[in-house]
Design goal:
heterodimer, A: alpha/beta, five-stranded mixed beta sheet, B: about 140 residues, Nucleotidyltransferase, domain 5, two-stranded parallel ribbon
Chain lengths: ~130, ~140
């Protein structure tokens, strides 16, 4: 008895559903991908033990107390005014350093508001002083 | 005169290249997908307007701090003093060198905690000094 080995009907992998499968995987990845990137205010912290002597006239002290009151160079100031004041100060002296000093009980929210204002005034030199406890 | 109004050629959108296109999209999304490695803590981020985007999720260490005073990295709750150990290990990892530390801190956390975290990062030095305070985009 002979088995006819030569007689073959078109042996092929059916590819008609390939697109469907690929679509299914595509939809899975589309759904699981989160495009939202982390965004926020970037800052470089100083190296430990790095202290510099800075001329007093180049420092603008920003003090924030536990209640969220802000003082810029001994004068009370509201959060919204900081941007314009800082812009003026940079225009007068582009070496100015904004030293932000907070109380240990100050809310983080206010600190970020102040940093945001300084960033909006294009302040490049921001220093963070350790809080007073 | 009679015009034949029906075109004789069969018209249809060629679908032969459809799988190729779909595969291309698929590969793009497969490559760009980063699965969440940690869920973090429940925090309400502060608002800010002048914000920058972080380049991606790779090579970023996320430090979470919620209003209950808990601090977490990679879903492990830890004390402030342990931060420098964990961040140091991330910084010296040859495969995924650390670039930025993202601070996801609740807006009601007190600055004492924030400074303590920053002091820990300063003891590590190098890439750990690059911090990013995560914020939401403020509506004007």
């Amino acid at each position: 008895m002979f088995v006819d080995k030569g007689k073959k009907e078109g042996v092929e992998i059916p590819t008609s559903s390939l697109a469907d499968i690929a679509f299914l995987l595509l939809i899975f990845f589309l759904v699981t991908t989160t495009i939202d990137t982390d965004k926020g205010i970037s800052l470089a912290l100083p190296e430990k033990g790095e202290t510099k002597e800075i001329n007093k006239k180049n420092i603008a002290n920003l003090l924030i107390n536990a209640n969220g009151d802000i003082m810029l160079d001994e004068q009370p100031i509201s959060v919204r005014e900081i941007e314009n004041r800082a812009r003026d100060m940079i225009r007068q002296n582009d070496l100015i350093i904004f030293s932000v000093k907070t109380d240990a009980k100050t809310q983080y929210d206010i600190y970020i508001d102040v940093l945001d204002q300084l960033k909006r005034a294009n302040a490049k030199r921001i220093s963070i002083a350790e809080p007073e406890s | 005169m009679k015009f034949s109004k029906k075109a004789k050629t069969a018209s249809g959108i060629p679908t032969a290249s459809l799988p190729d296109i779909v595969f291309m999209l698929l590969i793009f999304f497969m490559v760009s997908t980063v699965f969440k490695e940690s869920t973090g803590l429940k925090v309400t981020l502060p608002d800010a307007r002048k914000i920058e985007k972080l380049p991606g999720k790779r090579n970023v260490a996320v430090v979470w701090a919620d209003r209950a005073g808990r601090i977490s990295i990679d879903d492990i709750i830890l004390n402030v003093e342990d931060i420098n150990n964990i961040i140091y290990q991330k910084a010296v990892d040859p495969l995924n060198p650390l670039k930025v530390v993202s601070l996801r801190i609740d807006k009601e956390v007190e600055m004492g905690t924030v400074t303590a975290i920053q002091e820990e990062l300063r003891t590590v030095g190098g890439a750990a000094l690059q911090v990013n305070y995560s914020t939401k985009t403020a509506a004007d």
